[in-house]
Amino acid sequence: MLFSSEQVSNGHPDKICDQISDAIVTDILAHDKKARIAAEVCIKDYDIIILGEITSTYIPDYQSLVMGVLRNIGLEDLDKYKVQELISAQSPDIAMGVDNDGAGDQGMMFGYATKESAEMLPIPYVLSTRALQKLRAFNLANHFSILKPDAKAQVSFDYKEHKIDTFLLSSQHSESVSLKEVRAIIEKIMKETAEEMNLNTDFRVLVNPTGRFVLGSSFADSGLTGRKIIADTYGGAAHHGGGAFSGKDPSKVDRSAAYMARKVARDIVSSGRADRCEVQLAYAIGVADPVSVYLDCFGTEKEPAGNIWRSVLDSYDLTPKGIIKYLDLLNVDYNPVSSYGHFGKSELPWEK
């Protein structure tokens, strides 16, 4: 039985946008804890548009934030990028509900945890993510002279045999570099990643299957905030409510409740009450308490699932205000989660 998960690098055009959106969120919240932020970004070639609704006493230096993100990614010709802002204030109709501690929107959010990896995330997702993080480390060490920032990884994992079936990684590269050179670098990264997780290295290797990946980033594709929600979470192994995380302040339950659902699922698995757990929270706009709380342990629970469900209701404040306070979400640096996943990083409050 094969299951595949993918991840994208921080140089992918959609991830460029996520990183700018979360740089905006982090900067504004550092200066104004009461701010309401819904910041989306789109990019094509050298044109970047910031759009959305922001209500705050603080106005960030958008140009500086964008340039900082692009520089960190390793993009070139920074002086050629143009930034346009299309921003208005949050709707007063929405503010009415949020300012009374209600949810900023309706919707359902999911959290998931599994014993199968140290990160409590699905193995193929972890492999894809770790490989791209290793690729970034290689690029930083070599000043992006060989490979470039845009990359995607995908792993097909055989759960029955507990082995990697196919490891795919495509990376942008310098025009002067041959596919043979690219393959040697990436195959080494793949094998190191597999060995670190005590997995097989006799998998099928696919590197840049088209044979060439010189044109990349926003020059090969447009980018938009919130288009990589599966790469942000569980690689498709769990449900997703559909709402993106990046660019939103924590009054938006799309973000805060998804983090809390992950925290609850993680606590259940780490305490040994189940080997796998998925938690769903659902909200109505302007209403503080969730309209439903659901969990599924997929038959791996060590005690009656009803007992676990009741303990969740008794142990956690699942209102937006309670979640924000419990996870200290107004003081989180959201820059680290805007690429390579929102989960599995031990420094994050919902991963503790």
TrEMBL record:
Keywords: ATP-binding, Magnesium, Metal-binding, Nucleotide-binding, One-carbon metabolism, Potassium, Transferase
InterPro entries noted in UniProt: ADOMET_SYNTHASE_CS, S-AdoMet_synt_C, S-AdoMet_synt_central, S-AdoMet_synt_N, S-AdoMet_synthetase, S-AdoMet_synthetase_sfam
Gene Ontology MF annotations: ATP binding; metal ion binding; methionine adenosyltransferase activity
EC number, as in UniProt: 2.5.1.6
Keyword flag DNA repair: no
Cofactor(s) in the UniProt record: K(+); Mg(2+)
UniProt subcellular location: Cytoplasm
Biological process (GO), any one: S-adenosylmethionine biosynthetic process
Gene3D superfamilies: 3.30.300.10
SUPFAM superfamilies: S-adenosylmethionine synthetase
GO cellular component: cytoplasm
Pathway(s) where this gene product acts: Amino-acid biosynthesis; S-adenosyl-L-methionine biosynthesis; S-adenosyl-L-methionine from L-methionine: step 1/1
Top-level taxon of the source organism: Bacteria
Domain S-adenosylmethionine synthetase central: 101-213
Pfam families for the chain: S-AdoMet_synt_C, S-AdoMet_synt_M, S-AdoMet_synt_N
PROSITE patterns: ADOMET_SYNTHASE_1, ADOMET_SYNTHASE_2
CDD domains in UniProt: S-AdoMet_synt (cd18079)
Family per record: Belongs to the AdoMet synthase family.
UniProt-listed NCBIfam families: metK
Oligomer status and interactors: Homotetramer.
Annotated protein name in UniProt: Methionine adenosyltransferase
UniProt organism field: Oribacterium parvum ACB1
